[in-house]
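Hi U.,

Before I forget, here's the chain from the pilot set. I'm dumping it here mostly so it's searchable later in email.
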Amino acid sequence: MPDRHARCAAETARVRVLLPLPLGDAYDYEARPEMALQPGDFVRVPLGPREVAGVVWDGEAGGVAAAKLKPVAELLEAPALKEEMRRFVEWVASYTLAPLGAVLRMAMSVPDALVPPRGRTVFALAAEGRAALASGDSTTPARRRVLELLADGPPLPATELARQAACGAGVVRALAATGWIAPVSVPRRPPPASPDWRRPGPELSPEQKSAASDLAATIDAGFTVTLLDGVTGSGKTEVYFAAIAAALAAGHQALVLLPEIALSAQWLARFTERFGAPPAEWHSDLAPAQRVATWRDVAEGRVRVVVGARSALFLPFADLGLIVVDEEQDASFKQEDGVLYHARDMAVVRASIAKIPIALVSATPSLETIINVRAGRYRHINLPSRHGAARLPEIRVIDMRRAGHLRQRFLAPALVDALASTLAAEEQAMLFLNRRGYAPLTLCRTCGHRLNCPNCTAWLVEHRFLGVLQCHHCGHSERLPPLCPSCGAAQSFAPCGPGVERLAEEVKARFPDARLAIMASDTLTGPRAAAELMAAIEAHEIDILIGTQVVAKGHHFPLLTLVGAVDADLGLEGGDLRAAERTFQLLHQVSGRAGRADRPGVVYLQTYMPDHAVIRALVANDRDRFLAAEAAAREAEGLPPFGRLAALVLSAPDAEAVDFAARAFARAAPHLPGVTTFGPAPAPLSVLRARHRRRFLVKAERRVHLQAVLRDWLAHVKVAAQVRVQVDIDPYSFL
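Structure:
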């Protein structure tokens, strides 16, 4: 009798299956030959007492005894994960030092989409029924009504057919049994409308036409990275729309990444007007059913254009032909939890693996992108002028050191006068302050006690309109206590500093007849609320818009002629190596909202540092000189993009446990040429979500293989189960 294991080996194949779990490698399973599994196939496999969906992965299986292999339970009816996507998952995992399965989970974020949508059954008139209707042999009036309804209209579900024919369900069943009507399976949802690339777009200027032609020529020309660089209002969106049209004409899909997709109502309206149909959206506010439908339609090639947040980069496109990253400099493209990656940089990698073009779009490109252009790695298309009659706004500085004591007011007289003139001219104004809520700090007048978050080393921010104090890091909220918890004083709490709500209170007191709106991430509850606010501003139902950084995201308001940055210095201080660059970009973007049509615009910057390089560059409209100085300073220190950084953050519920782990990492820290390790030190937010945090920072020269150094370091230290180790390659946040 042949050996049982030998017989099993002949009848089954061994495959590797990668699961969307924080696992470093694929597991071996056995598969029946009739499954004919190939790399990329989605399967369901047993894992302990449950079954989990995963992907058949490349590579040689082996190492596990055949007797211990569990069988693949099912081949799922979903398009296979393409090789380019599998290589992308591997690349991201290797670069970020994240477990391979954790990266796969981002590509399998909608497990329900792996099951094909069930069709619905409708009934159509069969040939026998048509003959019976023509001969008059329909036996009963009820049957005749059903047959006539189908003869004159489309197929219908049984319940709807019975309702419209005013008969019972038994009549429909009897007609189906006789073969006079026939069941037909149809998709439960209609196919998504496809954008029409043939539709003519708006009239472009000669500069725009040249740029559009240049960018469109990259389609089907292999991997290229192009910086589409243009001042605010220069028409960059219409230029890359031309490239999207070229990709669609060639039969490809296109992906557009936006930093704030939920706030991009104007962009969606412009796309729909240009192409006659909306794109598919991908962001966290989508309903579950819509996520399932979109994921499946993207994989099957039914969706032609996707606009999304950074997670859209991991959708399984059937035939991706173009990637566009709009506002490529925006820090929100960096994911700060889970797998830590920068969507702009990973988008360039995905385009490289797929051998397709990518366009990085910005009025204030990141220093990393500028250096790549200067090194010849990226192409450069420049739009130096605003479209049509619009001109760049005039920038004026208000030196707050000379504005006098404002007595709990935050608007300087010059800005107040400008607001009054703007309202008198029936134009619109925008006030920018990058602080949510009413006040960033609340303290006791009697003893000086500050209200802190119980879970984080952070102050609680008062949100007076909601009546709560809130932590912007962990989400904890509470009511303002009636008594000071430190000294027991009653009604002794005072707000310190302004947020957008407090600013709105001052504006309302000064201009009681003005129509105000606040635009911040916590006041806009989703895409619908954002769209309604955009429509109200465009219809001039709002006179003064007060907002945080979300007001800078490419909005176009023709009547908006005045912008006031209430605290232009906010963000310039601190340990962030990109602080000056980010502040310049943000203030430049906010300034660009003014004077975008035929009415001239003016921008006021309230600052205590009028001689700071950022303020001087904004006033002189000299971006290039500012970036050159910023590049020289970073190059001298060996900081990105001229050197490399990585952060190692340890956290645990217990301070002693995390300190013990930090000492172990310090003893094993790398001592190599071109590598400098700083720390351990308490992170600026030393407690976050009730976890104590210690931080290492590793600086390395460009020639150093930083990931290899970090892997070796991590391999030499074992930590307790309660200690979490997070690696951040190319950190953007230093909190």
